[in-house]
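To: structure subgroup
Subject: Chain for Friday's discussion

All,

I'm putting the inputs and outputs inline so they're searchable in the archive.
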Amino acid sequence: MTRTALSVGIGVASALAADAATRRYLAPYRLSLHSAVLVGAAVVYPAAHSRFGAEPAERRREAVGVAAYAVLAVAAARSRRRAPVLAAGWASHALFDAAHDRSASSLLPDWYPAFCAGYDVALGAALLMPDGSR
C-alpha cells in the first residue's frame, strides 16, 4: 500500500469515526460542528506557513478558499437542505486539497493533503446518510 493510499484510508476512517461520535454524543449540534470544521479545514493551509510566508498568488488562492468555505457554511446554516449543501462543501474541499501544491513555505507534512481529501469525501458521504443507516 502506498503512503498516499494509507493517508487517504486513515482520513476516511477518521471522518467516519468523527461523524459517528458527533451523531451519538452531539446530535443536535452535528451539522453546526461540521460546518465550523469545514471552515477550519480551509484555514489550515494558510495557517501552516513558515514565518517566511507564502507567495502572493498562493496567499490569494488560500484566502479565496477560506472565504468560499465560510460563505458555504453560512449558506448551509440557512438552507432547508442543510446536510446536502454541507456534504457538497466537504466533497469540494477534497478538490481544494488535490489542487493544493505544497510550497517551500508550507509546514504541512507531505501526507496531509491526501489524508484531508479522504476525510473530506468520507464526511461528505456520511452527511448524506440518514441517521439510522450505520
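Points worth raising on Friday:
The chain has one domain: 3-127.
The mean pLDDT is 90.

D.
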